[in-house]
Design a protein that fits this description.
Blueprint (H helix, E strand, L loop, with lengths): L14 E2 L2 E2 L5 H17 L3 H15 L5 E3 L1 H7 L3 E6 L9 H14 L4 E6 L3 H13 L2 E7 H6 L1 H9 L3 E5 L6 H14 L4 E3 L10 H9 L1 H14 L5 E5 L4 H7 L9 E9 L11 H4 L1 E5 L2 E5 L24 H9 L3 E6 H15 L5 H16 L5 E6 L7 H8 L6
Parallel strand pairs: 4-14, 5-6, 5-8, 6-7, 9-10, 9-14, 10-13
Antiparallel strand pairs: 1-2, 3-4, 11-12
Helix pairs in contact: 2-4, 3-14, 4-5, 4-9, 5-7, 9-11, 10-11, 14-15
């Protein structure tokens, strides 16, 4: 297991080892170079840091707490399970962390509009929220399947003043939403900023989103030591594109005592092609959306169809830094299927009174399995990346009878 100095990643060309980079048309590369230069100048600017800190505290509600799941731990047995409560942020997930940073950067660059994709709708809601806060126009591309599945979040985006663009081609989910948003962005990269919703895409987006999200791990490290007197033995987060996971993992990469687990969506089973989105588990290196990463692909290098019960994990690629951390064996990437994720959704709800997002339920499900294998003096910290308000209609309609609803 290699220790990692995150401060040295990526290199100047946006590579994490062999992954990342920027593979875009030359005219767009000029714009991305401008964004990179402005970001590198801005991120260390005391005024920018002061502005970010103000919004994080007084608007988002940071720091989000760390909570010990006493009843769940007693029921499961074994290691103690703790949650980093990103679900308590304004808008209900971790996405607001990077949306504020991207929107403030857009204003510094003189942009008047922010454009993005969304799967589960949490990134879309967060970006629409920040656009309203800062007076920017906002356009969100979302697959028709996810629009139907995550209807509450669609309404929230519209109430906030965003334009929601239905994506009707392909599987009509997250990958197609990214395609559509990129196409719209390419038509006018001068007045718009594409505010990517995860640690994916061409450089500098994997770096930027990670940097804006790393407050999760920085807070958690201090909070966990205050609560228990030591670091967690294990940390766990779900991985689709991977922003909430990088947010938690970054602060712990050089702590040899901390085992790190990234949980991918196994859908109906990782052995069934097209019925999962376990990118690192079953993928190979390839190119998607302007960067290199592990991806699920066909014999022609085109993205394969994917599935997850969680719309926010339904993506055939993964962040380049995750790809690199997998090769280094610093992070253990594993997977949880739809059934176990929904079981965890109800277990956490009924044991602790916390309704998690289905995405986050994958991490909870793995933590429950891991806890059973470990002694009671071990600890597990789960990044509860979002709350499940957006999922309740879908869950009740499709799984309610099994759980007595």
């Amino acid at each position: 297991m290699a220790m990692v100095n995150a401060a040295n990643m990526p290199d100047v060309n946006g590579y994490f080892g062999e992954y990342g980079g920027s593979f875009v048309p030359p005219q767009l590369q000029v714009i991305l170079d401008e964004i990179t230069a402005e970001y590198l100048k801005t991120k260390d600017d005391p005024e920018f840091q002061k502005e970010m800190a103000y919004y994080q505290k007084h608007y988002v509600g940071r720091p989000s707490p760390v909570f010990f799941c006493e009843r769940l731990t007693a029921k499961i047995g074994g290691a103690k399970i703790y949650l980093k409560r990103e679900d308590l942020n304004h808008t209900g997930a971790h996405k607001i962390n990077h949306c504020i940073g991207e929107a403030l950067l857009a204003k510094r660059l003189g942009k008047t509009k922010i454009i993005a994709e969304t799967g589960a709708g949490q990134h879309g809601v967060a970006l629409a929220t920040v656009a309203a806060l800062l007076g920017l126009e906002c356009e969100i591309h979302m697959g028709e399947v996810d629009i139907a599945k995550e209807h509450p979040n669609v309404v929230r985006m519209q109430i906030l003043g965003a334009t929601v663009v239905p994506v009707t081609h392909g599987l009509k989910t997250l990958k197609e939403a990214v395609d559509s948003a990129f196409e719209a962005y390419l038509k006018d990269p001068v007045t718009q900023l594409y505010a990517i919703g995860s640690v994916v895409g061409p450089h500098p987006f994997p770096m930027m989103v990670r940097d804006f999200q790393q407050i999760i791990g920085e807070e958690a490290k201090v909070q966990f030591e205050e609560l228990t007197g030591t670091l967690p033995d294990n940390i766990v987060a779900c991985v689709g594109g991977g922003s909430n996971a990088m947010g938690l993992f970054t602060a712990f990469l050089n702590d040899e005592s901390v085992a790190i687990y990234g949980v991918e969506p196994a859908g109906h089973g990782v052995e069934i092609a097209g019925k999962h989105a376990a990118t690192i588990t079953k993928g190979t290196p390839g190119m998607i959306h302007g960067f290199k990463c592990y991806m699920l692909q066909d014999e022609n290098g085109e993205p394969s169809p994917v599935h997850s019960v969680a719309s926010g994990l339904d993506y055939p690629g993964v962040g380049p830094q995750h790809s690199y951390l997998h090769d280094l064996k610093r992070v253990n990437y594993t997977h949880i299927d739809d059934t176990d994720a929904i079981d965890a959704f109800f277990e956490l709800s009924r044991s602790e009174g916390i309704i998690p997002a289905i995405e986050s339920s994958h991490a909870v499900a793995f933590a429950m399995k891991l806890a059973k294998e470990l002694p009671s003096d071990q600890t597990i910290l789960v990044n509860l990346s979002g709350r499940g308000d957006k999922d309740i209609d879908f869950v009740v309609e499709n799984f309610g009878k099994k759980y007595g609803i």
